[in-house]
């Protein structure tokens, strides 16, 4: 994944917001290394060379709770010179949080309070991961 991104790439999803190229490369490394049982399926991949879309499903155990997650994601891309310069993933935060967090996700997964808490934790985990590598 790291080699797919241009040096000016950006990435956003419900948990990781507005990452730059260094952060998105580190995010994938962190998620793949910590995802001991990560399995990814993808389909409906389309591109015209400048833009693209794909659907993918990530199966994994959420490390913070030990709960199994099946996350269905729709991705959109913008490419330049064969590299991703913009990548956005869209998924149901409520469905994800219900699986990953259990009862708190079921009760609060629709709120900005929980979304912001998850985003803050994701950003901090990424910051700590990147600091430990340097």
TrEMBL record:
<dbReference type="Pfam" id="PF12680">
    <property type="entry name" value="SnoaL_2"/>
</dbReference>
<dbReference type="InterPro" id="IPR032710">
    <property type="entry name" value="NTF2-like_dom_sf"/>
</dbReference>
<feature type="domain" description="SnoaL-like">
    <location>
        <begin position="1"/>
        <end position="87"/>
    </location>
</feature>
<protein>
    <submittedName>
        <fullName>SnoaL-like protein</fullName>
    </submittedName>
</protein>
<dbReference type="InterPro" id="IPR037401">
    <property type="entry name" value="SnoaL-like"/>
</dbReference>
């Amino acid at each position: 994944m790291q080699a797919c991104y241009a040096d000016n790439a950006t990435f956003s999803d419900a948990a990781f917001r507005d990452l730059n190229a260094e952060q998105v490369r580190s995010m994938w490394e962190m998620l793949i290394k910590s995802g001991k049982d990560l399995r990814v399926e993808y389909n409906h991949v389309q591109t015209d060379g400048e833009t693209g879309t794909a659907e993918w499903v990530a199966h994994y155990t959420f490390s913070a709770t030990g709960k199994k997650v099946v996350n269905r994601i729709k991705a959109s891309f913008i490419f330049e010179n064969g590299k991703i310069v913009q990548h956005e993933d869209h998924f149901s935060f409520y469905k994800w949080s219900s699986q990953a967090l259990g009862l708190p996700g079921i009760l609060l997964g629709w709120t900005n309070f929980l979304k912001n808490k998850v985003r803050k934790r994701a950003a901090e985990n990424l910051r700590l991961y990147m600091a430990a590598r340097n």
